[in-house]
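Sample entry follows:

:::
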Amino acid sequence: MSEKLPANAVVVESALREVGAQGEIVVLPEKAPTAATAAAQLGCEVGAIANSLIFDADGSPLLVLTSGAHRVDVELIARTAGVERVRRATPEFVRQATGQPIGGVAPVGHPAPVRTLVDNWLSKHEVVWAAGGHPHTVFPTTFDELVRITGGTPVDVE
């Protein structure tokens, strides 16, 4: 990569190499805090963007990697995860759990493993794009690789 990666993206890049992921981190010209902005810059369908959403699940972090085409049904996710309550996490909670900012949370590279659920819908796309630890970075992957590198559980999210 010719462009210098932000510090969080370097951590994610290292984590990707450690788990044998194939994709390289791409630095986008503009921030991509939403699936729509990422898809527009990448020239792909919004459904091929893996949104990394951190939830507070009874006080523990829960990462839901959902297709940009979906909204997460928190009641369904709570039942699936076997917890009482799932709610959107605060920016501080996200940073503490992942070491990364909202709008750039990668599926890997966290200080400690985070329980992960992966939206089955992402399997419909040959290439899936996930955040690279910073709002300007993403990397290509596949549904199967995403499940493997996160130790995630494939689920329906809506």
